[in-house]
Amino acid sequence: MILTVTLNTALDITYRVPALVPHASHRVEEVTERPGGKGLNVARVLAALGHETVVTGFVGGPSGEVLRALLAGLAPVDELVPIRGATRRTIAVADAATGDTTQLNEPGPVVSSTEWDAFLTAYGRLLDGAEAVALCGSLPPGLPVGAYAQLVRQARTAKVPVLLDTSGEALRRGIAARPDLVKPNADELAQLTGSREPLRAARDARRRGAHTVVASLGAEGLLAASPDGLWQAAPPAAVRGNPTGAGDSAVAGLLSGLVEGLDWPGRLTRAVALSAATVLAPAAGEFDREAYAKMLGSVRVSEHAH
Amino acid sequence: MILTVTLNTALDITYRVPALVPHASHRVEEVTERPGGKGLNVARVLAALGHETVVTGFVGGPSGEVLRALLAGLAPVDELVPIRGATRRTIAVADAATGDTTQLNEPGPVVSSTEWDAFLTAYGRLLDGAEAVALCGSLPPGLPVGAYAQLVRQARTAKVPVLLDTSGEALRRGIAARPDLVKPNADELAQLTGSREPLRAARDARRRGAHTVVASLGAEGLLAASPDGLWQAAPPAAVRGNPTGAGDSAVAGLLSGLVEGLDWPGRLTRAVALSAATVLAPAAGEFDREAYAKMLGSVRVSEHAH
């Protein structure tokens, strides 16, 4: 089983409007809701790849109930921990004509220390049966900034490979606890290291504690800096579409490849192919299976000199 | 008791953001929720004026549960009828700097014919104890376009004075059932009658079936065309602020004045004062009690020649 952790789950709401005009009134033409938060997205892709997946994190309030009801219809197993506060909503306002979206993200519920303790107990129990764990996304208000560091240490003690995908101070603190893998994008990596030169920044991130760093560089694909070497993997040509969820699909590719014992070129190929197939899918966060299968054969992986 | 009907109730959500930028991502700084829909707003103002008020209409789904929980803390009595569909949400995105808002309104739940029948039974029972009834706002999907006409006829049969505040085809059909009072704004009146000349349009609306027409003309106040005469009432000077809810406050003023037996100049004075005090209040839809008391003494009412 692969475990994904989403401490700040979200009810993702999409509103279709003809075009968003500031300070005007809009009649929403279509409303769709889906369970959201990076770890939940990763789990859906993992499940689509045939992996048994379990999701945990926090859920609460009326929006949390809706999230759980929607999740019940999907493959990942719901092991979310109930809290008093309400799960945040995110609203994506999609212009019907262009497909451009305007994003409004609520901050998330305040999590109490009692609720955090309850989570740590549940997490420990779930690690027992896990082949790998992904820690994904932002921290909700109220959690200690070192929350991810604590979860990384607990996974390492349980000998479960742990991937951390977050940003800012949560990443800085989490990386120091020596996760097996971090997957920052170019901005997150620059914020962490102060360098916009990917190779230099990835090496710096390794020195800060990450065993392996896989940086997602948009159209240029992925750059992996591991103890075994340096690789770059990219799609044969730039893909155009909706990049929402592409990073989460890359995480699912890396994690499934790890569990299946693929080597680094194999993992990176899968991650890039999934990522590109997500950009190409019409629905945000879904991946196009046919494009994925086709892309697997055409991703270019090159090894860098050390 | 005064009854207000809101067939398309709403959970009104306000998001404060620094400034709304199309196609950008925004972290919402503050989230507030309140029970919404015109009839609920009218009932709150009526209750603040000391009137026993009952609200009915439809409520359902997770957003409906939140609405009912919030309503439980307020004065109006909740006699909403449960439905299978979910109460719509409205999102007001307020720019922190300027206070300008961008409005996103969900269309509302589909109401089945069985649910409509259940409402008609409940409505009949509530009319028994009502001194007056206000029918407010848009129709949710699934209801017959003649729904308001049916409710107007039922009120007239029960000899309960009935005010209709809606727009478009629902107004056109409702007005033909001869309500005691309609309160269109200038746009709604022009849409109904084809005329932008308020006096001519109000007279036309009376010919279409309304016993009395009170048109709200923004800064110019209210114009009443009744069997007893024609009046115009306006604040002493234009008021600046947030006009959200000003029309609903005017309805509450007219309805409370009717129940208390005020004459037309008295009712119009109250409606204009409440409306202006709503524009002046810092929170959308609330009215400033001090401004209201002061304004009551300074509203100018003039009688037109027939």
UniProtKB/TrEMBL annotation, chains A, B:
GO molecular function: ATP binding; phosphofructokinase activity; tagatose-6-phosphate kinase activity
Enzyme class, spelled out: transferase
UniProt domain Carbohydrate kinase PfkB: residue ranges: 14-285
Enzyme Commission number(s): 2.7.1.144
InterPro entries (alphabetical): Carboh/pur_kinase_PfkB_CS, PfkB_dom, Ribokinase-like, Tagatose/fructose_Pkinase
An example Gene Ontology biological process: carbohydrate catabolic process
SUPFAM superfamilies: Ribokinase-like
Entry keywords, A to Z: ATP-binding, Kinase, Nucleotide-binding, Transferase
GO cellular component: cytosol
Superkingdom of the source species: Bacteria
CDD domains membership: FruK_PfkB_like
Family classification: Belongs to the carbohydrate kinase PfkB family.
NCBIfam families: 1-PFK
UniProt protein name: Tagatose-6-phosphate kinase
Lineage: Bacteria, Bacillati, Actinomycetota, Actinomycetes, Kitasatosporales
